[in-house]
Amino acid sequence: MIRVALADDQLLVRAGFRALLAAQPDIEVVGEAADGEQALALVRERRPDVVLMDIRMPVLDGLAATRGITGDPELGEVKVVMLTTFELDEYVFEAIRSGASGFLVKDTEPDELLRAVRAVVGGDALLSPGVTRRLIAEFAARSREPAPAAVLAELTEREREVMALVGMGLSNQEIARRLVVSPLTAKTHVSRTMVKLGARDRAQLVVLAYESGLVRPGWLG
């Protein structure tokens, strides 16, 4: 069973998500929170696999709550998917840097929400369709001059190449086509790279690709 926690200050939003998720045979809703402090307490108590976290909440906002989760080594297995009203919400960029595995707009189709929950449990980053490259471009526009990254010394030449392609927004299938390998091989390279760098998921790998200078602004084409 995939254990999911809901954090949103709107009762009707939580009720809608709960009804959809609870109807699935492989998903269990383990709790709800109406603000960021409640969300942190809920996550620490119930240890869900995934938290659907609203960005704007009272007492403690979703960004701060996400940093509290991703910064706690004991909660390293918990994935956070941010919920926003608009695809390019001004806080989405900071959400990814804070360790969120991705984000969804609140009017997402039900099937997409269910795919999202299952995807992040599998270690994939989740971004609304068509947003990935725009989000990366935003990161590129805001990124500072990267410092030398000794951590990349841990990677093989092929792993660096794969990490750069992830940083440019390519999916495993696109990477496979670019490198003329199978999608499974591409996925294996991505997984090994994340393990070596201690990346929580694909979204964090994108951030590391820019912060290390492996991918630079203007490379998106």
Describe the structure.
Keywords: DNA-binding, Phosphoprotein, Transcription, Transcription regulation. This is Response regulator transcription factor. By secondary structure, the protein is an alpha/beta fold. Helix content is about 50%, strand content about 15%. The protein contains ten helices and six strands. The chain has a six-stranded parallel beta sheet, with helices on both faces. Helix 7 crosses helix 9 and helix 7 packs across helix 10. The protein is globular and about 50 Å long. The model has no long low-confidence stretch (mean pLDDT about 85).
What's the helix count?
Answer: 10
Terminal CA distance: 41 Å
Mean model confidence by pLDDT: 83
The gyration radius over C-alpha positions equals 17 Å
Strand percentage, roughly? Answer: 5-15%
Provide the structure class. alpha/beta
Looking across the biggest beta sheet, what order are the strands in?
A: 2-1-3-4-5-6
Instruction: Enumerate the spans where pLDDT stays under 50 for 5 or more consecutive residues.
Output: none
Helix amount: 40-55%
Main sheet specs: 6 strands, parallel
User: Could you spell the SSE succession in H and E letters?
Assistant: EHEHEHEHEHEHHHHH
The count of β-strands is: 6
- Global shape: globular
